[in-house]
Task: structure prediction
Amino acid sequence: MDWKVVFPQGATKALTFSYDDGRDHDRRLVEILNKHSLKGTFHLNSGRLGMPGHIEASEAKDLYAGHEISCHGVEHLWLSHSPEDSIIRELWEDRRGLESLAHYPVRGMSYAFGDYPVGLPERLPFLGIEYARTVRSTFSFDCPKSFLEWNPTCHHNAPNLMELAERFVKFPAYKGFSIFYLWGHSYEFADQGNWNVIEDFCSSFDGAKDIWFATNIEICRYVNAARYLATSVDGNMIQNRSGANLSIRKSSGELLALEPGGELSL
Result:
């Protein structure tokens, strides 16, 4: 085939952030991301909002505007130590509570404590969950095989964080979908007195032209839409079977738009 799917506007790479617990230090983190025109996903425990050290439920919609609100469990239960009906309630009710604040369907999550029982990822779609983040760092930019066990690139405390950032900026386009996925907790910056870590990391992407700054759900849906394309045997006819707008790059360099339900003959 003389074409490949690329990220929106022809970007070859994507950068996303994932921060847990809805702590009050999210306010400063959001300011930093907004300053650099970056996007993040914030995994909240709807049952803990308003508690000491946490954001207020009433500020969530405005605080995370332009970012993504996502599940982390109503009460931050340790899922692998919980009965199945409690797990269902923990995730289903968290979605319900967060959707009443966000005013859109909440369809992603991160595993509390990074732990979960065997078989849970396969059952998450029945609870309306499209992706779930683990805490197993890959130190790579690989696209996940399954978004229901989405391993991040690294935690922000990784000793080689800035080396990884520099490598990602220079990462070659021929690698296909490449993703830098950073995760952590905003309170860690306050506890460790190292807000400069996230400031420096974000600054390293200023002016980047070939990186898509996206939320977790945006990347998940885009990649899944690309995987759902129908092609002819010779690869010259493409049909978009998803509801996403996709970007197609021909080997000549020409960038084509493939609308939802649309077809291209190359």
User: Anything to note?
Assistant: The chain has a mean pLDDT of 96. The longest strand covers residues 13-20.
